């Protein structure tokens, strides 16, 4: 593995304190753009499968890809903003994921009460596709798992996805 770029390392601050990486590097911005694209493509693919199969599981996974795309886009927007704005963006992302979880739970309950089971092959195939998309995003972001609240929230969003299959 290559050594991180010098601009990706924390800079020394006054009085011996360390400044946390705030994402303000061209390399990190390119990575965020790549993971936004990965998640957007995964959203379209999995949402199509969810609609075709009437699957609550795939629907939840598609919404999670959409939420991840939005989370990464907010993070990209917040780069270079004040600490207060970056911290607020991290809180907003956390709250939005909580709301998404409540929506997915409600959709799953509705689907369990009203629907027929979807095709297992489609769910398995799209689940493996989701796992691959999440693994690629995690590999791109693993070097940037430490930093300020905004950078850290990107890694936490990625990490939660990479530890369970789509």
List the helices and strands and how they pair.
Blueprint: H1 26-53, H2 56-78, H3 83-114, H4 120-141, H5 149-162
Characteristics:
disordered N terminus; disordered C terminus; mainly alpha; single chain; 166 residues; 72% helix; 0% strand
Question: In percent terms, what proportion of residues is strand?
Answer: under 5%
Residue stretches low in confidence (pLDDT < 50, at least 5 long) are: 1-12, 162-166
Order of helices and strands: HHHHH
User: What summary fits the major beta sheet?
Assistant: none
Query: What's the β-strand tally?
Result: 0
Tell me the structural class: mainly alpha
Global Rg = 18 Å
Number of helices: 5
What do the pLDDT scores average to? 78
From the spread of the alpha carbons, the general shape counts as elongated
Helix share of residues? over 70%
Our measurement of the CA-to-CA distance between the termini, rounded to an integer number of angstroms, reads 27 Å
Structure commentary:
With 166 residues, the protein is mainly alpha-helical. Helix content is 72%, strand content 0%. The protein is built from 5 helices and no strands. It is elongated, with a radius of gyration of 18 Å. It starts with 25 loop residues before the first helix and ends with a helix.
Report a brief summary of the structure.
This protein has 5 helices and no strands. The chain is mainly α.
